[in-house]
């Protein structure tokens, strides 16, 4: 499931941008979770569960970066809404088609 070298270069460029966007979103969620009206312990548990859940997603989307895992990582990043349409257009038509096909299969 390797991607072409040209797509790999584009992906590496956007990888850190997507990671920053994801982390920003998680931190915004944490802010909202800490502004709760429950007990401090309940707020803590809410934040703890949120971080655990988001940590699973960040691992699936950003860990083990290689050309052989890039397509899977890219689909997760796209599904998380971390790349703009303009950014996606910088990938080859072939890769965009593969991403669309995988997305349509996963939607069932």
Helix-strand layout with pairing:
Blueprint: H1 5-34, H2 40-62, H3 70-79, H4 85-88, H5 93-107
Helix pairs in contact: 1-2, 2-3, 3-5
Task: Let me know the largest β-sheet.
Answer: none
The first-to-last residue Cα distance is 21 Å
**Which blocks of ≥5 consecutive residues have pLDDT under 50?**
none
Rg on CA atoms, Å: 16 Å
Beta strand count: 0
Provide the structure class. Answer: mainly alpha
Number of helices: 5
Strand/helix succession: HHHHH
Strand content: under 5%
* CA-based shape: elongated
Determine the fraction of residues in helical runs and give it as a percent range: over 70%
The average pLDDT score comes to 92
What's this, in brief?
This protein has 108 residues and is mainly alpha-helical. 76% of the residues lie in helices and 0% in strands. Helix 2 (40-62) packs across helix 3 and helix 3 packs across helix 5.
Explain what the structure shows.
The protein has helices spanning 5-34, 40-62, 70-79, 85-88, 93-107. The protein has 108 residues and is mainly alpha-helical. Helix 1 packs antiparallel against helix 2 (40-62) and helix 3 packs across helix 5. The longest helix is centred in the first third of the chain and has 30 residues, at 5-34. The model has no long low-confidence stretch (mean pLDDT 92).
Features:
108 residues, mainly alpha, 5 helices, 76% helix
